[in-house]
Write a structure and sequence with these properties.
- By secondary structure, the protein is an alpha/beta fold.
- The protein has two domains: about 5-195, Alpha-Beta Complex (2-enoyl-CoA Hydratase, Chain A, domain 1); about 200-245.
- The chain contains eleven helices and ten strands.
- It has helices spanning about 30-45, 70-75, 110-115, 140-150, 150-160, 165-170, 185-195, 200-215, 220-225, 230-235, 235-245, and strands at about 5-10, 15-20, 50-55, 60-65, 95-100, 105, 120, 125-130, 165, 175-180.
- Strands 1-2-3-5-7-10 form a six-stranded mixed beta sheet, sandwiched between helices.
- Helix 8 runs antiparallel to helix 10.
- The longest helix is centred in the N-terminal third of the chain and has 16 residues, at about 30-45.
- The radius of gyration is 19 Å and the shape is globular.
Length: about 260
């Protein structure tokens, strides 16, 4: 499918998604949000795709959030049901998504990072929720922010709108790794390779259990929940292939079924 400011490519079992609007710091308009929803819907439904990576074009900005000019023309945000970038309010995607943060991740850009499972950022990347400084609030990211770091630091970020560095983001636990600009691609490839060593259905079960379990009212309730992805994993050929490969001292061949 053709998209206006979003490029996609498939490399083996990996879907690469690039926000391609560097002249506007990769800000998203209403159509881009809907396009990204379609893209991640298709990623969720395709058996042959195991990992997705989202990044921005150029070396300056990952995503600068909403296109404020387009937002003004439309008299507000026009977001799909899955939220900013088709990710911020998506809760049924059990496959891993990696944020390759190549520059500024501010406003909605930080929302995307928070919605991804793993994130690797270049050293010059900057993060922040500047919405209060323009009379808005980062509605798609505040709840995630408060759950992913200490509340006092989250409040400081959300209430002051100040920018913070990649090193600070890593220290806060919002990203996994900081690399030099020329190392981003190889670091993401290494992360993908690690994920591909694991059974894809095991990754889905793991993600669903961790995230749905966090939504439970207590640890006891988390253990009592039923996880469909776990049932699929336990009934899969891969669940038999893994132990068999271990006994035979060979690398398992995952089928994703």
């Amino acid at each position: 499918m053709a998209f206006n400011h979003i490029d996609t490519r498939i490399d083996g079992t990996t879907l690469w998604v690039t926000i391609n609007r560097p002249e506007a710091m990769n800000a998203l308009d209403a159509r881009a949000h809907c396009d990204l929803e379609i893209i991640f819907d298709k990623y969720a439904g395709r058996h042959d795709l195991r990992v997705a990576v989202i990044t921005g074009a150029g070396d300056k900005s990952f995503c600068a959030g909403s296109d404020l000019k387009a937002r003004e023309t439309a008299s507000g945000d026009e977001l799909p049901g899955t939220g900013f970038a088709g990710l911020a309010e998506r809760f049924d995607l059990h496959k891993p998504v990696i944020a390759a943060v190549n520059g500024y991740a501010i406003g909605g850009g930080l929302e995307i990072v928070l919605a991804c499972d793993l994130a690797i950022a270049v050293r010059h990347a900057k993060f922040g929720f500047p919405e209060p400084k323009v009379g808005l609030a980062a509605t798609g990211g505040l709840h995630r922010l408060a759950r992913q770091m200490s509340l006092k630091h989250a409040m400081e970020i959300a209430l002051t709108g100040k920018m913070f560095s990649a090193e600070e983001a890593c220290r806060f636990g919002l990203i996994n790794q900081v690399v030099d600009a020329g190392e981003l691609s190889s670091a993401v490839d290494a992360c993908i390779a690690e994920l591909n060593r694991c059974a894809p259905l095991s990754l889905r079960a793991t993600k669903q259990m961790m995230l749905d379990g966090l939504s439970a009212g207590s640890l006891k309730m988390a253990f009592e929940l039923r996880y469909g992805a776990l049932d699929d994993m336990l009934a899969s050929d891969d669940a038999r292939e893994g132990p068999r490969a271990f006994i035979e001292k060979r690398t398992p061949v995952w089928q994703g079924r």
